[in-house]
Each structure stands twice: as structure tokens, then as C-alpha cells.
Amino acid sequence: MNGQNRNDISPGMKVEIVLKQDQRTGKLTKGTVKDILTKSSFHPHGIKVRLESGQVGRVKNIM
């Protein structure tokens, strides 16, 4: 699963996100979803989430 569908993601899941400052390099950050920030059911660049660490980014991979 690639993180583009909101239905595939729920709080407590382990995911890899790309942070805003890492979008050029594509560096991934691992963490656990705390909140889902994207309201639409689909986003081509990935659903935006907040991790339990407080970091915000778009989901690239669901573990």
C-alpha cells in the first residue's frame, strides 16, 4: 500500500512518511500515525499525517 488512500491509514499504524523539508531528497521517516490531516479520500502525493513524535508529512509506505 502506498499511502494515497485515506481508508488504508488509521491512527496507530506504522508508516514511512516524507517530511516537507525532505521532499527534494525523498528521505523517509518512520513512525506511528497519531492524526490524519488530509480530509479527502485520495491524494496523489500521499495522505498527510502527524506522527506521535509530532512530525508532519505525507505517507509513502505503510508497514
TrEMBL record:
It comes from the Bacteria. Pfam families: DUF2196. InterPro entries: DUF2196. NCBIfam families: YwbE family protein. This is YwbE family protein.
